[in-house]
């Protein structure tokens, strides 16, 4: 099992009832896990923040082999203007067995810590955007610089989102589950 597969399964297992609701939450939780554990997963800017095609493909593969179950709930058109569907991922017995074959206490601890800070996809997405900006552009962390960099990436961040994201990043940094961006 590769690092991306292990990360996806571990994040889902670390969520309440081995069930994680939302593709965005899954992507962003793994983003922070990747930043914490140096897993080598590639991310690029995307509408909801950093996005990994590798993670998306791994999720699809794990669903296809039966390690994860994916439930899709279609929402009324006005609920989510970007997708219209909510995805829920459930760890199956096969997924649990795969994780038991290659236990990793550090990875599991980091998964629990990250999800323990928030399971709100929008808060995690804003924090991932802010972290990506700081990591990528460094130096000037002023509100104006963050907003300019967010705009350049096509991201919309509100002042309150930036404040909450900064607090989340500080908590992750203090707990050792995030490296300082330089």
Tell me about the largest β-sheet: 3 strands, antiparallel
Q: What's the alpha carbon Rg, rounded to whole Å?
A: 16 Å
Distance between the termini: 32 Å
**Range of strand content:** 5-15%
Helix content: 55-70%
Helices and strands, in N-to-C order? HEHEEHEEHHHHH
Quaternary organization: single chain
Write up this protein.
This protein is an alpha+beta fold. The chain has one domain. Helix content is 58%, strand content 13%. It is built from 8 helices and 5 strands; from the N terminus they run H-E-H-E-E-H-E-E-H-H-H-H-H. It has helices spanning 3-14, 23-37, 53-65, 93-101, 105-117, 121-137, 143-152, 159-174; strands at 19-21, 44-46, 49-51, 68-74, 85-91. A 3-stranded antiparallel beta sheet has the order 1-5-4. The protein has a two-stranded antiparallel sheet with strand order 2-3. A hairpin with a 2-residue loop joins strand 2 and strand 3. It is globular, with a radius of gyration of 16 Å. The mean pLDDT is 88.
């Amino acid at each position: 099992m590769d690092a991306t597969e292990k990360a996806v399964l571990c994040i889902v297992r670390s969520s309440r009832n081995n069930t994680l609701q939302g593709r965005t939450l899954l992507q962003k939780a793994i983003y922070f896990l990747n930043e914490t554990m140096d897993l080598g997963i590639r991310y690029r800017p995307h509408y909801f923040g950093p996005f990994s095609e590798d993670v998306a493909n791994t999720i699809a593969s794990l669903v296809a082999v039966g390690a994860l179950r994916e439930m899709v709930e279609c929402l009324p058109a006005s609920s989510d203007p970007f997708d219209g569907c909510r995805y829920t991922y459930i760890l199956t017995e096969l997924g649990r067995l795969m994780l038991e074959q290659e236990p990793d206490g550090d990875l599991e601890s980091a998964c629990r810590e990250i999800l323990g800070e928030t399971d709100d996809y929008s808060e995690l997405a804003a924090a991932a955007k802010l972290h990506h900006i700081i990591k990528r552009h460094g130096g000037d962390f002023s509100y104006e610089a963050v907003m300019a960099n967010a705009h350049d990436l096509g991201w919309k961040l509100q002042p309150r989102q930036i404040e909450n994201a900064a607090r989340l990043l500080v908590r992750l940094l203090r707990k050792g589950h995030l490296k300082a961006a330089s």
